[in-house]
Every structure is written in structure tokens, then in C-alpha cells.
Amino acid sequence: MKKVEAIIKPFKLDEVKDALGEIGIQGMTVSEVKGFGRTGGKKEVYRGSAYVVDFVPKVKIELVVSDSQVNQVIEAIEKTAKTGRIGDGKIFIVAVEEAIRIRTGERGEDAV
Description:
It contains two helices and six strands; from the N terminus they run E-H-E-E-E-E-H-E. By secondary structure, it is of the alpha+beta class. The mean pLDDT is 91.
């Protein structure tokens, strides 16, 4: 199993969620997060004064999938989250040793 973590622009969330649903993904965790990458934030002007917004609002999607689904998930996220502009986000893949459904005690892929 793999955990897929994707940091994307907030307005792309619905498109990504729909694309994942089309390939059979039934659950995910979504968090509102803030961060910055190579650009170091962005400059804004408020009442004539320029200032730097260090942390840019993003959305973090987390899902655990079987090894056979990983490539489909990556393609779906990459295709729908891409705008071609700076700040489109990142996708991280992490190995998952075990998953346990608390309610039933199911383990492994059955728990996902």
C-alpha cells in the first residue's frame, strides 16, 4: 500500500476529487494548509503598501491506495491539478506498512 499526499491549489480540489472518484477512489482526507516553495511566497499590495505573503493557502489531499492504483491516482491528480503556473503543487508517495479499520479490526488493503 502507498500513501499519496498531494498539495494543490484550493480551487482545483473539486476537479481532483471528481477525477479520483472516476477511477474508483472512495475516500480521502482533505486539509487546508499554508506553505511556500521556491518562490518564497508572493507580493501583495494593501492600501498602497507592498508586503510579502510568506505562506500561500493550499489544500492537502491524503489517501492510501493499493500499489496497483498508485499510477492511476498520480495521473489523475497531475492532470486535473495542473494549471501550468507556478505553485501548482507537489505529490508525495510514501510506503504504508499497515492499515487497520478501528470499527471492524480489518487489516491491510481490506481496511482501506
